[in-house]
Amino acid sequence: MSDLHFNVAVIGTGPGGEGAAMQAIKQNKSVIAIEKFYEIGGNCTHTATIPSKALRYAILRMSEVNNYMRQMSRPGMTIDLEFPELRKSAASVIQKQVAMRRTFYERNGVELVEGAARFVDPHRIRIDTPNGLTEEITFDYAVIATGSRPYRPDDIDFSHPRVFCSDTILNLDFTPRSITVYGAGVIGCEYASMLRTMGMKVNLVNTRDSLLDFLDDEISDALSYHMRESGVLLRHREYYESIAGTNDGVITALQSGKKLKTDILLFAAGRTGNSEDLGLDTLDIEPNSRGQIEVNDDFQTNLPHIYAVGDIIGYPSLASAAYVQGRYAASHLDNGECERALIRDIPTGIYTSPEISSLGKTERELTESKIPYEVGHSMFKHLARAQIVNCPTGMLKLLFHRDTLEILGIHCFGPNASEIIHIGQAIMSQPGEANTLLYFINTTFNYPTMAEAYRVAALNGYNRLF
Questions:
Q1: Which of 78, 116, 244, 341 is least buried, going by the fewest C-beta atoms within 10 A?
Q2: Which positions does UniProt annotate for NAD(+) binding (predicted)?
Q3: Is residue 3 part of an annotated ligand binding site?
Q4: Is 188 annotated as a binding residue?
Q5: Domain with 321 in it: what CATH number?
């Protein structure tokens, strides 16, 4: 370690930590980034976003090839890869991400140290390195970006070879015929969707009344419909009584009296912040029951010079959100303020099949706020591009103010929704009268494309006005 005092100490090298470190170094701060594990990138790179999305891509490509062969009357020409083979596709992506991100730290002069960080007092951190040595540094500001891990209740035996969380399921060494997914949040819905695409029988146990109820009702309903249509068995308002692994499967007993037996179980009911062993008690920072740290609107803890970003603070628990939160924190600690547009409108990307992405207000929120709005729809089944690529499922939905034509919400359900959303985001983020439905009406889109859904939806909504 070249120095023992730093302007900014960042704990964790996931998206939140990286965003904070890169922004702080650009502001001519001396920065140290402390990572507990040998490889940088955090859970996002190694156990969550990157591996799960690479797995999903491999599954979808295999499914698309097999469907195409059936349509071409070539039923014998199919691909039938096992789960471990499909999982391998992520390995090269992970290594590329790690190598690329390491160069960010090296090129920008961030001191990158492997070790477990623990606060000794409000301006000192002890680092226990893998070789058994202990270093101690002092700092002016700190950013906690240690992420989260799957929530694992004590009454469930996760050491059983058929009981998994969202981290361990990536190491599944066989292809099961059936699975119970307990928890129908984003992670649960994503895995239920992709594993059903593989042909597994899927029970999705939801403790709430509907799927992903933070979404626009129409999008949530569409997800439920297509889940059921694909063969996923949805069980709403259910809670487990016990989960017991056996030699040939897992028995999930529900409080309603139902019992489910499947080859494996994926427990996906939330995540826990990685806040233990950080020495937060020395700072009088007390995490909640899920290990999350409370922060103010500027991501400051109860000590103004110590910030927390990313999954460690809870919602929205998105890699994209964590990165901009890290940038915001580093900008704020530099001059006491930051442009709030950086964190105001963060799109939701949910990688079910089909994808979901949304930005802004839902119909429910606009109705409750008594905002006069109108709706424009574009059904993908009517778009030439969707017909050509044989992906007719989905829609784009625009919510706009019926008097000013300001875009208030964008909701997309269908293939590449997480990409399509950004076209609307570019207009919605414009100040004043530049945020207008008329942009989509008066703009020529390439044909045939999925992007022209914006023109169709805009005209559909505009024609409702009187």
A1: 341
A2: 183-190, 270
A3: no
A4: yes
A5: 3.50.50.60
